Amino acid sequence: MERPDWAPEGIDLSKASVARAYDYWLGGSHNFAIDREFARQAIAAVPDLRLVARANREFLHRAVRFMIDMGIRQFLDIGSGIPTVGNVHEIAQKVVPDARVVYVDIDSVAVAHSQQILSGNKFATAIQEDLRRPEVILDHPATRALLDLDQPTGLLLASVVHAIPDEDDPYGILNRLRAALCPGSYLAISHVTTDSRPEELGEGARLSGRTTTPVTARTRAQVERFFDGLELIEPGVVWSPLWRPDSPEDVGDHPERMSFYVGVGRTV
């Protein structure tokens, strides 16, 4: 397969990326044939997958606006993916022009495209790293240059923790990240589950095994455990449309079909 001009050198075009498939589901163009093949197979298993992806993205928007309202002025967005409409820096800087954002993703296309659109924005940057290496993320020169972790921080983990299998100790990884945050910081998580649609989402999770970041779906109790020791913000861990919707119409008749548990917690 020929590498497009916008794709980074050395990228593996033989294996699908969930980040690039997510870009496809949201209507983006920074994806390859192998990603689109996987994305279409996933849609065959979960026909409303595009709606699921949008609902997850909309939760992220609401969580960022909430944190801004709570006084947060800097964000660490891990698993940020390929930039699309309504990125964290756009939402935050619309209200607070000097709000600072560090994007982190394992996918080189996501990082390269992020760096391109952030050119000239001195308050936002993107780095390529792995959530499983929290100390490397926290000690990265770009992170240290933009974020002051002695000040409250918004840690955003949207649709990424489920990419960490149990054997890699996701709870331990999050504890190491949380330990770096000062009191008054916030943690937002969205996490896929098979609780409401075990057959459809189970097949989707199985298909993800063909990608660079296979998915581990978790139950509500398992997702709630990521917030242990934090002040869990109302309404707690809920289906993505139910977390502080902008209007009742946004919830829909079956919020459980969005198949993501989401929540926000505050460090104390």
UniProtKB/TrEMBL annotation:
One Pfam family, short name please? Methyltransf_19
Q: Which InterPro entries match?
A: SAM-dependent_MTases_sf, SAM_dep_MeTrfase_SAV2177_type
Q: Which parts of the chain span the membrane according to its record?
A: none
Q: What is this protein called?
A: S-adenosyl methyltransferase
